[in-house]
Amino acid sequence: MRECVRKNPEFRLDFYKTVWPKLLPSKSQMEAAERFKDTGHESLRELIDLVADSLGEGAAPDGTEGSPGEFEV
After folding, report:
1. pTM beyond cutoff 0.85
2. Nearest-5° angle of CA 28, CA 34, CA 40?
3. What value, to the nearest 5°, has the Cα angle with vertex 14 and ends 9 and 20?
4. What share of the chain is helix, strand, coil (3-state, %, to 5)?
5. Where are the alpha helices (DSSP H) in 1-73?
6. How many domains does the chain have?
7. From CA 10, how far away is CA 8, in angstroms rounded?
8. Any residues with CB less than 8 A from the CB of 38 and at least 6 apart, and which?
9. Considering the domain boundaries, does residue 36 fall inside one?
10. Predicted pLDDT at 48
11. What is the pLDDT of residue 30?
12. Arithmetic mean of pLDDT, 22-47
């Protein structure tokens, strides 16, 4: 088929009109696939929440009270 497309301009035109569009996904197929695309956003949020919970609410890493995000260096 590749050779026919390369050698015959009429076959090439027919190929691009009939066969090529069937190989490409439709707009609805692309939209459906996009809905199931994993961005990792939820997984990252869950990981951040897990780390925050393991540190304890309102406790600094040294055990003293402080706002989350305040760490001694």
Report:
1. no
2. 170
3. 115
4. 60, 5, 35
5. 2-7, 9-14, 20-23, 27-35, 41-55
6. 1
7. 5
8. none
9. yes
10. 87
11. 87
12. 81
